Every structure is written in C-alpha cells, then in structure tokens.
TrEMBL record:
<dbReference type="InterPro" id="IPR003594">
    <property type="entry name" value="HATPase_dom"/>
</dbReference>
<keyword id="KW-0808">Transferase</keyword>
<keyword id="KW-0902">Two-component regulatory system</keyword>
<keyword id="KW-0067">ATP-binding</keyword>
<dbReference type="InterPro" id="IPR055558">
    <property type="entry name" value="DUF7134"/>
</dbReference>
<keyword id="KW-0418">Kinase</keyword>
<feature type="transmembrane region" description="Helical">
    <location>
        <begin position="6"/>
        <end position="25"/>
    </location>
</feature>
<keyword id="KW-0597">Phosphoprotein</keyword>
<dbReference type="InterPro" id="IPR011712">
    <property type="entry name" value="Sig_transdc_His_kin_sub3_dim/P"/>
</dbReference>
<feature type="transmembrane region" description="Helical">
    <location>
        <begin position="131"/>
        <end position="148"/>
    </location>
</feature>
<dbReference type="Pfam" id="PF02518">
    <property type="entry name" value="HATPase_c"/>
</dbReference>
<keyword id="KW-0472">Membrane</keyword>
<protein>
    <recommendedName>
        <fullName>histidine kinase</fullName>
        <ecNumber>2.7.13.3</ecNumber>
    </recommendedName>
</protein>
<keyword id="KW-0547">Nucleotide-binding</keyword>
<feature type="domain" description="DUF7134">
    <location>
        <begin position="12"/>
        <end position="150"/>
    </location>
</feature>
<dbReference type="Pfam" id="PF07730">
    <property type="entry name" value="HisKA_3"/>
</dbReference>
<dbReference type="InterPro" id="IPR036890">
    <property type="entry name" value="HATPase_C_sf"/>
</dbReference>
Amino acid sequence: MRDIRSAGAGTDATLGGCFLVALLAERFMLDPVPGRDAAAAVTAGVLLAVAVALRRSLPFPAFVLSATGLCLEALATPVSWLSPYANLLVVFSVARHASRRQARWSLAGVILCIAVYFAVRDEVLRPTQPLGVLVVWLALWTAGYAMARRQEEQETVRRLDREREVALERGRIARELHDLIGHTVNLMLVQAGASRRLLDHDPGRARELLLGLEQSGRDALTELDRVLGVLDDADPLGADGLALLPVLVERITEAGLPTTSDVGPEVGDLPRSLDLTAYRIVQEALTNALRHSGARHAWVTVRRDDGGLDIAVRDDGRGAADGYRPGRGLLGIGERAAMFGGTVTHGPGPDGFAVRCRLRS
C-alpha cells in the first residue's frame, strides 16, 4: 500500500496545486470575497489544497487539515462551491488509505465537520439539505473503507499463499535431504563394512570399495550443494532425475547389490518435478533393498503410458515378515507419490520384496 501512495504522490501534489489555483481564481476573480475575509479564505484554501496533496501519503493528517479548512471557511468567510468537493475527495481517501482505527475516527470527524459547516450558515433552507450532504459523504467513506478492507483480505490471501509455498518448499527440501543423506550414508556404511571385511584377504577389492566410498562422498557433497540451492533450475551436475539412474545403479552394484535398470523408451522427457520424484522413489527403494533385504539382485523398471508413470523396484531377498510396518523410507515414497495423485504398493513379492508406484503424468 505504501508503494501505491508513493506512486500517486506526484499526481496528488499536482491535483492539490490545481485546486488551489482554481479556488483562488474563484475567490478573487469570479466571486471576490470581502477584503476582511481574504486572509481566512486563503488560509482555508491552502489547508484544503495541502490536504488533497497529502491524501494518500498521510491520509489521516490530510483529513484533519481538510476538515479544519472547511470549518474555517464556513466560520470566517463566504463559502466556496469548490471546497466541499476537495473535502469529499479527502474523506474517501482517509477511509481508503488510512488504518482501520484512523478511518473510524475520521467517520466521527465527518459528522462533526458537516454539523459545524451547516450550523453557521444562514442560507440553509431545509433540514434535508445537511442530511443529503451527510448521506453522500458517508457513502463515499463507506466505499473507500470497503475497498481498503477488500485489499487487506487480498493481501492476507497472498501472504498465506506465500507462506504455504514456503512450507511446501521446505517440506520438499527436507524430503530431498532425507533421501540424499539417507541413501548416501547407508551406501557408504555398506561400502566401509565390505572394505573392512576384505581388507586382510583381498586388499585390491577393498581398495576399489574405498575408492567407491570416496566417490560417493564427493557426489553427495555435489548434490547437497544443489539441494541447498533450493532446487534451482540450473543443475550443476548437468543431469537430473532419471537421467542419473545409471549412476545410481552403478553405486548400488558397487556396494554389493547387483542391480539392473530397464527404462522404457516411451518415458521420454518428463516434467522436471515428476522426473525428480521418480528418481527419488527409485533411490529410496534401492536403499531399502540394500539395507534390509539381503538380496543377491535387484531390478528397476520404469514405464509410461497415457495415464501416468509406473515404477517397480523388486529384489530377490528374504522379503518382509508378516505384519511388517513401513518405515520412514516407504512413508516418504508414499508422500512423494501423493503429490502427483499417485499410489504406492509394497510388500513381499514372488521372490523377495517389491515396491510399485503409479504416478500421474
């Protein structure tokens, strides 16, 4: 609102200057006031002109100046037909741009100003005349006040939308960090454990695993930089989503779980958010298989049709015990799928454990 007031300051100053010129022309050229009333007429006109110039930048002080100028004119000089219109404009502005409290105080000021204005005038012929003026002034005040409250509601909605977007983004980053750190730490633990067991009788293989562990750490740091960059569109890895699936499969294989991936040619270019979600689902499912299944092999299948994207990750491990409860990883997969109106099923498969996911594309 402050920006709007600042943007209109020049226009208001011009309008106030034009009003003062017109008022002085009326007072001293078209319908000259008596000499004894000239000072009061000029003072009242200046107050009203300043009020018009400040009506948006300082709405309540402008209203006070306007009411003072109008009452001064009614008390000390013959009234001008221009002055009430200047006051009417300021009344609308104070209701439109002032705070709620100031706008409500101005409502009492409107009634008092009109009462003073008509109480000292001798040419009021009918009681309905001040009543009609009051109705018009109150109507303009009501219109300004309603516009202000409507703008407040819109700003509140926009603020809540921004807060919701921030919360969603934070949740998405939290899931990204969980998937990244959880996958990498588990992978590095498996590689470190295998290296320790092979260190004495197969140093060459242990060296390879340690090199893989080092590379996993470096890749994790690179991807962590990307995630902490609020998932910016510019990806320093040069690839994202399922394009990184071969690298993931290689890591899992080096960690001791040979993995085969099969991505259908119909998958094509997915929307970035869907592509990244699909990759994270596969990553989490393979991490679970590596940690818990005791499998000898894992398979990843990704297919796409007109209705959506199908993801399947299965292994030939020992499966899951009866009545198992999904852990954080599987719950995270379900949350990711829900973002795309998808469904997830998981449990013992024909030869081990399987996670199947259907995402709308």
